[in-house]
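Could someone model magnesium ion with this protein?
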Amino acid sequence: MPRAVPPLRIGQGWDIHRLVPDRPLLLAGVRIPHERGLLGHSDGDAVLHAVADALLGTVGAGDIGQHFPDTDPRYHGADSATLLAEAVRIVAAKRGRVVNADVTILAERPKLAPHMAAMRARLAELLGVDEARIGLKARTMEGLGAIGAGEAIAAQAVVLVVLSPPRRRAAR
Ligand code: MG
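Reply:
Sure, complex below.
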């Protein structure tokens, strides 16, 4: 008999958005004061997009581009928190629950240190886990490349999910 696979699934996600004037800056669902914001069909929240892609990856459910195509006017200006909530729902439908998530934001500016606690709390809320299960880091690019020039912000995420066993049929 083949050995049972442990019911843990890992997923990773990555995203980048261009910083442009006259857009609010949203990261991990938190509004951050800055003279530029992230361009996107949705609200451009690269952190929530990376986390949603990582989540979908845990159960092999594709990516957010497939589930929420940017050609669909329904997602124009969409709150990325609702996209992430939908990814949580897709994973839950496959009996998956988040164990923990670890996220790194790549941004030259603005300084994210004053906003880390709020972003971490919001991620915990959206993923339905205790804050202790959320890792959140911010790094600069040491001035290198487009991110280093302050033209874009990127995020990467790893999420671990545990699958609950299929329900046994009730005995008659
Ligand atoms: Mg995106």
